[in-house]
Specification:
Number of strands: 21
CATH topology: YerB-like fold
Low-confidence stretches: 1-28, 30-38
CATH superfamily: YerB-like
Number of domains: 1
Structural class: mainly beta
Largest sheet: 11 strands, mixed
Distance between the termini: 142 Å
Radius of gyration: 38 Å
CATH class: Alpha Beta
Length: 355
């Protein structure tokens, strides 16, 4: 016997709905495996730029590391005749410029900034080449006096004049030497007279390497032991390389040059500058012409550093511009950190012999 089950309309409808749901449901997606997952690093936003490197402060005239004092350069005119030696203060200069004046004698433009000597002298009068040397430093110039026309040149150069003849404080005559070789002065008193326009430290004059081994002569120079200058019939300084001290030692001819306190005069750099040395319209005793140097323009020179010498070209664009030195390839001929003596060699009559 066959048994038949009857499904009513409601049952049919329910079965149809179940079949439709089964056909329309998607299969579940597999979970991603770890190899398919990319994890990106979290990078925090930049909060500040990288600071620029800070250059180590250095004294502008020597390039020696330190904390430069906020005072101007002080130049002093110092005599260099036999009766003036030994002089006071030259062992503490940053720079010295040796010039030939009338009667073929030499006179120093001694520049102080990083050191303060107790006394300087003997102090003498100004000359026409002084503004050309000192205008770029815009500092102080201490001297004993000068001819009216030359004083005008100095005043127009922008330096502040401190003159013994004008009664400036800090100068006096000593009793152990005869006039006019006995005017001395106190640098601290000179600096105290700096006016509002002459407070700033000087700018760098010659370019100076950060270390001695980077100086132009050290890199490309030729070994040398002596620098024999003929500046005039009355002035023949010699510089001898002393490897033990790492310095050039100065002599007046064959006589060692010393300061009044006994210290040997020396330099880290000796710079020879050859320039025209014409007479001017100014006259000294008996009508002897007062010379100057033509320092605006360019010419030949030699730099001696570290027991080596290298030829250079000097250039000076104007009275107010510092003199620059260049190697044969046109690159700056940097000096080594330390003090510098500049020998101004009269073109045509002066000479330098390197030994």
């Amino acid at each position: 016997m066959t048994v038949r089950t009857r499904i009513g309309p409601i049952g049919v409808a329910l079965a149809a709905l179940l079949a439709l749901a089964a056909c329309s449901s998607p299969d579940p997606e597999p979970a991603p495996s770890p190899s398919n997952v990319t994890v990106r690093p979290t990078i925090p936003p930049t909060k500040a730029s990288v600071p620029a490197p800070v250059a180590e402060p250095r004294w502008p005239l020597t390039g020696i590391a330190g904390d430069p004092a906020a005072r101007p350069a002080l130049a002093v005119k110092i005599e260099n005749t036999p009766v003036a030696r030994p002089q006071s203060g030259l062992e503490q200069t940053d720079m010295v410029w040796e010039t030939i004046v009338e009667f073929d004698v030499s006179r120093f433009v001694a520049v102080f900034h990083s050191q303060i000597p107790a006394e300087v002298g003997p102090i003498r009068s100004v000359r026409p080449m002084d503004p050309l040397i000192l205008a770029p430093m815009h500092g102080l110039l201490a001297f004993s006096g000068g001819q009216p026309g030359i004083l005008t040149l100095v005043a127009d150069s922008g330096v502040q004049m401190i003159s013994h003849d004008a009664g400036a404080p800090g100068m006096y005559r000593t009793k152990d030497r005869a006039a006019p070789h006995n005017v001395y002065g106190t640098p601290t008193i000179f600096w105290a007279q700096a006016d509002a326009d002459h407070q700033a430290p000087p700018a760098e004059q010659f370019t100076i390497a950060r270390s001695a081994d980077r100086a132009a002569a050290a890199v490309a120079g030729t070994p040398a032991t002596t620098l024999s200058f003929h500046l005039s019939p009355a002035s023949n300084p010699t510089w001898t390389w002393d490897a033990a001290s790492g310095l050039w030692l100065r002599s007046e001819g064959a006589t060692p040059a010393t300061a009044r306190g006994g210290a040997r005069l020396s330099a880290v750099n000796v710079v020879s500058i050859t320039a025209a040395h014409p007479p001017t319209g100014y006259a000294a005793q008996n009508g002897v012409p007062v010379p100057t140097y033509e320092l605006v323009g360019s010419g030949e020179g030699v730099v001696a550093t570290g027991g080596k010498t290298v030829p250079v070209t000097w250039k000076k664009d104007s009275q107010d511009a510092p003199m620059r030195l260049f190697a044969a390839d046109g690159s700056p001929a940097d000096l080594a950190p330390g003090n510098t003596w500049v020998e101004l060699v009269p073109a045509g009559s002066g000479s330098l012999t390197v030994g």
